Amino acid sequence: MGRIVRSAVVSKGNLEGVADDEGGQNGQGETDSKDGDGYLDRVAKYVPAEIVAFFIFVNSILANAVEKPVAKAMAAASNDEAISGKVREAIDLEKMAGISVWTISWAVLFVALAMTPVYLKSVSDAADNAEAPGANIVMSMLAFPFWAYAVDALAFRPWHDGALASIMLATFTLISGAIRPEYINAGLNLIPGIGPKK
Known about the structure:
It contains nine helices and two strands, in the order ααααββααααα. By secondary structure, the chain is an all-alpha fold.
């Protein structure tokens, strides 16, 4: 199972070749994919797992740096309206090499989001170029903020709600499996130079 979602259309190969009964080898040593990935495969492949893993690692370092100040700020906040401001202020006051941890947390969030398409393009193989990993890139970039919020990203900490994070992530995951690559690629085809290569 590759990392890039396969479309339900024939993606590569010489259609004049002789295919086996299961749509596999076409007589030219190249594989044709007629069915594409199913719903559950799309759900799994749209998750930018490696980027989320990197983000969780860095976020845990940042969260440890501000653990005590944030706990103090939350204990000092007298009402629910003041909590988010106090938490943000506590995070902002902590420094790493003279830079606010709040600033670093947002920078890491944007770097991880920006690296999602770079990573997906680098793991796509020659067979994926026929479909272009555009659908995965779009869906993974949309998925990343949901995952970042769900893993309690420090950048989102003042507004984090665990129940809401679970609901948002479950809802996005449910919807993402229904979005086939053909739908996204059709939209990308309208943008010159971005759409899938034929």
